[in-house]
């Protein structure tokens, strides 16, 4: 795969370079929440484990504008706390592909009304749960809160129970399952005994699905980490959303069926953007070892990489189709590099190795069959070939059908 590039600044070794006169990163304050949310994610100074800790709701400054990426692609001025001028070089490569990605993102990204709906259910659930677990605190986590959600995203919930005795998640979820069957607004409860057990259910009369876990506070910390990355550059959120849509459409984004989880896929995207000759992203954990999951503000990261969205997407596909050594390397967002596989149990005999940034486990362990691994690799290669040839997102993804489906959600 050879791509002729015309960039304003330095080239990169992968078929992308990347533009980043980027959006300011919103602070991840523990006492702040997204618009429409009446309860924050807890902070990480241990105070969130206290049943007496009640963060006061405040507005969370989230950069939202349906025109921001359009303006960025068309070389206009866009105001986001400060005025930023985006140079014409950003659209030299793959303008059609870039514009398709922007359009898909603008329609599919989670709306404030979607979040408000999830928050309404969370609020009611917490009130009902506290009849059984008085000290229970329920938090929205995952893509609903990290900036990477779309209109059709499920909602992740974490029930934090405190006390001297560590609760058994299966027992707690079984109790909640019986409770939920009596609630008029909950439907289709299902207890899933995974490594992190969850209670899956839907809002009655809709297709909004929830996954509730007990005391998985690592998931809360990951929400902060991914949120920090999501707003580090204007291109991160649209790129991840499009890649998740692509992976889901091509049936390689379902850990329950032996392919990649959304979390593993997001880390793969971030790793790629970190490892360019001119990186789009740094390792936030390395540069801000405390701030990335605490109340301290992380300064904006300004990359010199000038690549368009289309260039980055094609580069992502090429990197995993031809450059990355699946048999020898571990993807590490924590270290912003790929490190060699060792003989430890986490990496030994695993087809895909993606390091969890905090626990350092393998979040791609669901890919344990060679036939599924081969299908994933083949999809990267085929999509890379098609996209390079057509320069059209429709060649690998039914863009209009997805847009129509997402736009019809209420």
Question: Which features would summarize this protein structure in a list?
Answer:
Beta Polymerase, domain 2, cytoplasm, NT_sf, metal ion binding, 12 helices, five-stranded mixed β-sheet, 9 strands, Poly(a)-polymerase, middle domain, about 35% helix, disordered N terminus, magnesium
Plain-language structure description:
The chain is an alpha+beta fold and 410 residues long. It folds into 2 domains: 1-24 and 234-410, Poly(a)-polymerase, middle domain, CATH 1.10.1410; 27-61 and 111-146 and 148-230, 2-Layer Sandwich (Beta Polymerase, domain 2). The protein is built from 12 helices and 9 strands. The strands form 3 sheets. It has a 5-stranded mixed sheet, with helices on both faces. Strands 1-2 form a two-stranded antiparallel ribbon. It has a two-stranded antiparallel ribbon with strand order 8-9.
